[in-house]
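Q: Structure tokens for this one, please.
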Amino acid sequence: MFCNGEQADAATLRAALVNYGHFTSLQVRGNAVQGLDLHLQRLAHATQVLFGSVLDEGQVQRWMAQALQHAGVADASLRVTVFSRAFDFRAPLATVAVDVLVAVSAPVRLSAPRAVCSVRYQRELPALKHVGTFGLFQQRREAMAAGFDDALFLNEEGLVSEGSTWNLALHDGQQLVWPQAPALRGTAETLLRQHWNGPQVAKPVGVAELDEVQAAFACNASGIWPLVAIDGRALAGSEALAGQGRAVMAAVPWQPLQA
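A: Here is the predicted structure, written as tokens:
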């Protein structure tokens, strides 16, 4: 782990334990990232919202590249967390300088099929990838305890929003459908929507409409995987649809990290 380009010490990591901040997770292959600009934009926007500060995107990118160099790897998973050792919950409106923590771990590629159940749940500030992940993981845990692989979230109006740590696309037999409700719009979703070469639409999807879905896949920066069943209803076309999604992502350019 590296904080502001230096090896993170125990005092820095203790400060990062305060449950106020945001992050992005991404995959690096050959020192390059798909959607690097989207990850940096996400970090800059959330920094302004949570801290009232301007994030130096170029510096963050250099710290990411330096962390890979220190680790001696060109393929990895990176988690970039923005927090502030100067943040004081007693004066949360103060504009403070931020700290950037870069964690390097082994590369990941998700592809295994999953069966999910729908639950009524919505994250706080759903448009931000903030560090308040307790509810997400608890919903996943409860879904697994009930015999499913993960949880699909519905908001109070019964609209499909997102999964525990992923976005999803549905196919109604005619077109790809991106459910629209307050949610984190992921980098993988954005890239797929930009590069998908078939008919697609983004629209609200109610829970009752899930009965008409013929196929579905989940996606995040770590991969694309088929949703083979939702609420116990099998989706026979999901494996093929996920394959289409992977083919689309395989053609998306990788942006090099500049040290």
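A few notes: Residues 117 and 235 are 13 Å apart (CA to CA). The two ends are 17 Å apart (CA to CA).
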